[in-house]
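Quick one, tokens below. Sequence please?
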């Protein structure tokens, strides 16, 4: 009988120690959870501040002011702007290189302006209905 009591006492002691250990571990984990939740709140606040700062830095008026003042940029004159509609790409007429090089009159003369080939990735990114504005150089004039 005393032997069973001793065994029960040992089991009870081990059970109590296990309970205390698990409670201590649970409290430690809860404290870590609270710290991590506080850190998440701080990161959310910082993220909001960074978004606000990013939108401030990217404001059109600010960029234009810096371009005008620091970089001395200006919009092109109306005569140097050409509107190109990218929705209807037109291939240039075939040109005979030998005739164009020899300067034969009336045979395969190269066009005055050769259209630029736009990569598929760029043309896909541009809306099919919106024309693009591309500055062009007037013949014989150099840019400042």
């Amino acid at each position: 009988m005393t032997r069973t009591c001793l065994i029960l006492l040992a089991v009870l002691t081990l059970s109590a120690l296990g309970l205390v250990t698990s409670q201590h571990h649970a409290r430690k984990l809860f404290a870590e959870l609270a710290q991590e939740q506080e850190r998440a709140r701080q990161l959310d606040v910082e993220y909001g501040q960074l978004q606000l700062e990013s939108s401030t830095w990217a404001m059109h008026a600010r960029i234009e002011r810096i371009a005008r003042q620091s970089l001395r940029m200006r919009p092109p004159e109306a005569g140097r702007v050409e509107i190109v509609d990218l929705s209807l790409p037109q291939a240039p007429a075939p040109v005979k290189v030998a005739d164009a090089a020899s300067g034969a009159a009336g045979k395969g003369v190269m066009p005055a302006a050769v259209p630029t080939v736009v990569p598929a990735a760029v043309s896909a990114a541009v809306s099919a209905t919106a024309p693009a504005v591309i500055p062009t150089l007037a013949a014989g004039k150099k840019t400042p």
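Confidence is low (pLDDT under 50) at residues 103-115, 117-144. The chain is about 55% helix and 5% strand.
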